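Please check this:
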Amino acid sequence: MPIATYTLVALDCRAPWSLAGFYQGVLGGEIKKYDDDWYDLRVPGGAHIAFQRAADHRPPEWPRGDRNSQQAHLDFDVPDIERAQEEVLALGATPLDLDDRGGERRFRVYADPAGHPFCLCWQ
């Protein structure tokens, strides 16, 4: 029997409304404001991502592991990597590692506007 039920992932950032808008552009869904420091994005299919204000937030130094390392990252499946890449870049993502080795490695790595790493993955 499980101890808990999964609820959501919360990302720290300086501007929660703005980051919620970025992920709404990527995933769709509806943003709910709880207060100026906390926004929740409910995406189609039922998943939630929350965005919490952290005034002193510093993005991880991807792909470092010795200090200020990546704490976590999000993976998103996409049907068309080229189209998805164009769209996330237009929304404000930053490319971190686009070398998919000619399609052998089935993902590319980006940072959201607050610096959190995420991957676009395809089959």
Remarks:
- DSSP finds two helices and eight strands in the chain.
- The beta strands are 9-13, 30-35, 38-42, 48-53, 74-77, 94-97, 107-111, 117-121.
- The chain has a mean pLDDT of 91.
